[in-house]
Design goal:
966 residues; five-stranded mixed β-sheet; single chain; 28-stranded antiparallel β-sheet; mainly beta; 47 strands; globular; 9% helix
């Protein structure tokens, strides 16, 4: 990576500095004044803070024609939660994916994964280049929300049913994030906030703050407004946990009925090794009789199928996650009928942290001797002693840099009483770069290392040993170890132009429009592991890439860190096992030069595949909106259809037959069209009751990673190949919704919704027979034998190739469910008291080939409970969010046919409280937020409840701050 990739770009610094200066300039003109009174709730009762946010959400829901939930800022720069994703998680039907630090990251709506949710900024598509949760790939269409600060947004809308004028792309729904603008709060405004955030695990305080200033003017050429804001967050984080990389069983226990459950990922020793300890005699044959004698009460069948962690390891992650954001919004209204706006948003994040884990080596091992092993009815090993074990340290110092930049100009023109024209342009760009080196060193083998294993209680197994793994002088070895440089660069770009025209009035109108949108995403992996490893521990010298022989990593003479020097680069670690003195190690091994020179690679450390996808979409729609009234009934309806045409170009690396690495790229293309009808209606009944109906068809475009070419041949005649499929068609869903709401007064209402989705477009591994030319592979890149074979079959245009690839299947996943929602002020009990509650239940069933039995990563039920009190200067809110357990992967994990990854149920309790001193300058409000009060963990399992896959303890977070305004 060159130096420019490690620095904040000039335009990013300029915008951040400009926004700060502009906010400060506006602030110098500010005078202490009370903000204009907020809009009343449905009963015209003026409220503030969280209750105002609830009231505005209730009003927006009541006035919507379709099924929509909204969240509003409590005040300028103050959302109900500290994270946009956390706020969305409180909406019925929305589920949240969290980083291992506990921070909200992605959302999913109504029974489908995060890639089925369309995320928009001010009505336009966006993409964020980051790679998602720790160890994730984000190769699909997910959008990480942690880069967007709550302070710079005014409103979030979750649309669960579409209208024709809305951008397509979300089978399950769409989210529109509305950034703040000056005329949201006319006049002169200055809002500030400062907070100190305490992380319980790191026991450190981190600052965060925001400054938002705006001013509007009424001039002789119209109204003009400008808003500038900056939000800065510094987070010192630390997470401890446990990881396994799956579970497996021994291969070499042979008997009738043995090895019937798959897996087979390691072998026990066949003879007792030297120095095994535990009273064992070296050279003793380990046969069935030995195994039965030394594991009393356990059968051979149990020993053969007993599951152990493949790499059971305590895990430690600590570092910092920093974010800077800036917003500049300009509005100009030359007349009551014409307005212009220009929004500019910048966000940049820098994350620097260390990951440490101490791995008990079970995967691919053949040296352990099992003693006193016990196995339960699920074939999970619950206890035992394992002589002649081995460990390796994996040290990974990560550096990640993320940038996001968005421009959004637009206008609204009310030409006359019955013609309204709206237009906007948008452009966004996001860049992500990760340095992810790793250093692995081993304990010596045949050195008397014994593991005492206990999985009888607790959230994960305990793996104790008779040696001190925190001792740099234990005898750590290079032999069998490795080092890696595996960097990753991502860039996403979106552009769009939209024009909408409405003919008519609020009683009946026709809205038509067109849209042109492009999106481009590139993932480029960079890997210089072989060259760096040769320099570090392979004896140095001039590096020759494969297929030249690669020297072993053994710390031989000439290495930058020889075996005799290795211990000097280790030191006691923070979690009970050694770590690497990274500053000294990287300097001694010339790491920066090797990292900067890292060449292209087909895949990254997370297995994300290198490639580029470009999409160009043209859309057009027609939409009727109308209102009819009859006595005490009022009907509002929306009906329309959207047409979209998408062209895709997918580029990926091509590895010619016999080549050790990719030598070039190939590009494949596809095109598809879709018609997306939608209908929404709401009927207002007497006594503040609203009944709703909706029907629609939605789509989500296919997974880009399944379309990347990656062509390879499996035979010398080029008759059989594997390749990604650029012709995958989108996921489509037919959706039906019905609901009823009763508005009880103030912010209160009670609602119930039933919904059904019939989702198609799932894929299975299949074959297509196509002419060689359609592969997109240069004929001249084949071997002479393959060229001759193709010519013998009629040449590149006639010879056919059987291609194994993902193909669309005819199966349908049906999702049915219901949502219950209750917002209730309790002013009749105590003025200012109230609660909100919602519950979502989802049922899934599949029919036909290819459809999964359930969507991955979806809880069958979720609920949220919030109690609040807000009156005068005091405000307090206590919220509980709960997600039921869920299936997190398909079957056959680690070759165990029945094994799926599962996520435990999890609840989280949060507190938000504040007290305002209105008589002091700037009306300061002291705030207190406590996140994860009950210290809930994150846990996944490998099929069985006592087979932990991952376990993380994000800990509690405490934020203390002050807010004020002029």
């Amino acid at each position: 990576m060159n130096s420019s990739q490690k620095k904040t770009p000039a335009h990013a610094k300029s915008l951040l500095l400009g926004a700060t200066c502009l906010a400060t300039l506006l602030a110098t003109q500010a005078q202490a004044q009370t903000a204009p009174a907020p809009a009343g709730d449905v009963d015209e009762v003026v409220v503030t803070g969280f209750r105002r946010s609830l009231a505005e959400s209730t009003t927006a829901k009541r006035e919507a024609t379709g099924f929509q939930d909204s969240i509003f800022a409590e005040d300028i720069g103050k959302f109900p939660d500290t994270n946009l994703a956390e706020s969305l998680n409180r909406i019925p039907g929305v589920q949240l994916t969290r980083e291992i630090t506990g921070e909200g990251l992605n959302i999913a709506i109504r029974g489908l994964g995060t890639n089925f949710t369309k995320i928009m900024l001010n009505g336009n598509q966006i993409a964020v280049a980051s790679s998602g949760r720790t160890d994730s790939q984000n190769q699909n269409r997910e959008v990480d929300l942690d880069v967007f600060p709550t302070e710079l947004f005014n409103r979030l809308d979750v649309n669960k049913t579409p209208v024709a004028s809305m951008l397509e792309g979300g089978v399950s729904g769409s989210v529109n994030m509305r950034s703040a603008r000056p005329f949201d709060n006319p006049g002169r405004q200055l809002n500030y906030s400062l907070q100190g955030a305490f992380n319980e695990n790191s026991e450190k305080w981190s600052p965060r703050g925001a400054l938002i200033a705006s001013q509007t003017w009424d001039t002789n050429i119209g109204e003009f407004g400008i808003l500038a804001g900056v939000a800065i967050a510094r987070n010192k984080v630390e997470t401890r946990g446990f990881e396994t990389i799956g579970w497996s069983n021994a291969t070499n226990v042979i008997c009738a009925g043995c090895n019937t459950n798959g897996g087979n990922g390691f072998n026990f020793a066949t003879t007792v090794p030297a120095n095994a300890g535990n009273g064992l005699v070296a050279g003793t044959v380990i046969d069935n009789a030995f195994l039965l004698a030394n594991n009393p009460g356990t059968t051979l069948q149990q020993l053969s199928d007993g599951l152990l962690p493949r790499l059971g390891r305590p895990a430690y992650s600590a570092g910092r996650r920093d974010r800077d954001s800036a917003l500049i919004s300009i509005e100009y209204r030359p007349s009551e009928n014409l307005s212009f706006y220009f929004d500019t948003l910048l966000a940049q994040a820098e994350r620097k942290f260390e990951r440490l884990d101490m791995n008990w080596i079970v995967r691919n091992s053949n040296n352990m001797v099992p003693l006193n092993v016990k196995v339960d009815s699920n074939n999970v090993v619950t206890s035992g002693t394992f002589a002649n074990s081995q460990f390796f340290l994996e040290y990974r110092p990560y550096e990640e840099d993320l940038e996001f930049f968005n421009l959004n100009p637009g206008f609204t023109w009310q030409a006359n009483d019955w013609i309204k024209v709206e237009g906007q342009l948008n452009m966004s760009k996001s860049q992500f770069f990760r340095e992810a080196p790793s250093v692995l060193v081993n304990t010596p083998l045949n050195a008397g290392v014994t593991v005492t294993y206990d999985n009888t209680s607790g959230p994960f197994p305990t793996i104790d040993t008779n040696v001190d793994l925190n001792d740099p002088n234990l005898g750590w070895l290079w032999a069998g170890a490795r080092v890696n440089i595996q960097n990753e660069r991502r860039v996403t770009k979106t552009k769009g132009a939209h024009l909408d025209t409405t003919f008519g009035d609020e009683n009946l109108s026709l809205k038509v429009g067109g849209a042109y949108d492009t999106a481009r995403r590139s993932i480029i992996a960079l890997d210089n592991s072989p060259a760096w490893q040769q320099a570090v521990c392979g004896g140095g010298g001039t590096f020759q890439p494969a297929p030249a022989p690669q020297p072993a990593c053994n710390g031989q003479a000439g290495s930058a860190v020889t075996q005799s020097q290795l211990a000097s680069y280790l030191r006691p670690g923070p979690d009970g096992y050694v770590t690497v003195d990274w500053d000294a190690f990287k300097q001694a091994t010339n790491y920066d030069a090797f990292s900067d020179a890292a060449p292209f690679s087909a895949a990254s450390a997370t297995a994300a595949r290198s490639g580029i996808i470009k999409e160009e979409t043209v859309g057009a729609y027609a939409e009727f909106n109308g209102t009819s009234e009859f006595r005490d009934f009022r009907l509002r309806y929306n009906a329309g259809v959207r047409y979209v045409s998408t062209e895709q170009k997918i580029t990926g690396p091509f590895t010619p037959p016999g080549a050790p690495a990719p030598t070039g790229f190939q590009t494949l293309g596809s095109r598809y069209d879709a018609y997306l009808p939608s209908f929404n209606a709401s009927l207002e009944l007497p006594h503040n009751v609203v009944f709703r109906l909706a029907a629609s068809r939605t789509l989500t475009r296919p997974d880009p990673s399944a379309m990347l070419p990656g062509t390879s041949f499996s035979d010398p005649s080029a008759q059989n190949a594997s390749q990604g499929n650029p012709n995958l068609t989108p996921f489509k869903s037919n959706n039906f919704d019905a609901g009823i709401e009763w508005y009880t007064g103030q912010e209160g209402y009670i609602g119930a919704v039933g919904f059904q989705k019939e989702v198609s477009g799932f894929t299975v591994q299949g074959t297509n027979t196509i002419p060689f030319r359609q592969l997109g592979v240069p004929f001249e890149s084949l071997t002479p034998n393959q060229q001759q074979a193709i010519n013998n079959r009629g040449g590149p245009d006639a010879a056919t190739v059987t291609v194994t690839q993902q193909v669309n299947a005819g199966g349908v996943l049906t999702i049915r469910g219901y949502e219950l929602n209750w917002v209730q002020p309790l002013s009749f009990v105590v003025d200012g008291l109230g609660f909100t509650a919602n519950y979502t239940r989802i049922y899934q069933s599949a029919s036909g080939a290819g459809a999964p039995p359930v969507a991955i990563g979806v809880s069958p039920y979720t609920y949220n409970l919030t109690g609040y009190y807000e009156k005068g200067p005091a405000s307090i809110r206590l919220s509980w969010t709960y997600n039921d357990k869920q299936i997190s992967s398909g079957p056959n994990q680690n070759s165990v046919p029945v094994a799926q990854l599962r996520t435990d149920a999890r609840g989280q309790l949060d507190l938000s409280a504040s007290y305002s001193f209105d008589w002091l300058p700037t009306e300061p409000r002291i705030t207190l937020d406590i996140i994860n009060i009950t210290d809930e963990e994150q846990r996944q399992t490998f099929e069985y409840p006592n087979a932990a896959f991952t376990y993380y303890k994000p800990g509690r977070g405490i934020l203390v701050g002050i807010r004020g305004r002029f």
